[in-house]
Amino acid sequence: xxxxxxxxxxxxxxxxxxxxxxxxxxxxxxxxxxxxxxxxxxxxxxxxxxxxxxxxxxxxxxxxxxxxxxxxxxxxxxxxxxxxxxx
Length: 87
Prior knowledge:
The chain is α+β, with helices and mostly antiparallel strands. The protein has helices spanning 6-16, 46-54, 77-86, and strands spanning 21-24, 34-36, 58-65, 68-75.
């Protein structure tokens, strides 16, 4: 069982709909900036990302745009099961 805040649960539910978000992981002016793929998204902060990643509920894939590294986060199978079990 995961001890998640309502904010973290909202992010998982949003990801379950097929949405993703990207975090800039390059040392530049955009470092740490979070960009959702869909404009209407729950508030996503870095602490939420760290917690969900540490629990294995989200995964990331590295993408490069104009030479800048971004990590694209999506839901894992374990995260999908956690969301389904909460309902």
